[in-house]
Amino acid sequence: MSDSPSPAPVVLDVWCDLQCPDCHTALGDLNALRAHFGDRIDIRLRHFPLEKNKHAFAAAQAAEEALAQGKGMPYAEALLARTSELKDEGEPVLLDTARRLGLDADEFDTALVDGRHILIVDADQAEGKAIGVTGTPTYVIGDERLDGGKSQEGLRERITEIAERLLARQG
Description:
By secondary structure, the protein is of the alpha+beta class. It has helices at residues 21-37, 56-68, 72-80, 83-89, 91-100, 105-114, 118-130, 155-170; strands at 10-16, 41-47, 138-141, 144-147.
């Protein structure tokens, strides 16, 4: 007597630069997708800090520290709401955001100094480059890559169509 396992969730990788205003705009779509699909979709934030955004690489490392402290996505969302502050003020915004979420800001500071999360960020960036990511946000679902950096218009609908198709194949 075993229940049949529920199908594995569809994975949506979102290649993101945490200093990118377009990635902040994309949050509305991601939250709508999460609300629509629930646990049938696994939205994974992948790091793709752009060279033009000088605090993006540190922000990606900080997001990994937030993940290690149990608040990865809340931290990323809070940081994306502060992209212009991050651009103007730099790393103090990373630590302030951690404090606001009740995270250990001293540990964030240490993580940024000792570079404990650099390999994760570098690996994401290398994988992104290997699959043709050039800007953010870029979405990968199934075997399709969708570039949200040019326009978010219609992307949520397109991702929904692909996810529904992939889920239908499973069940």
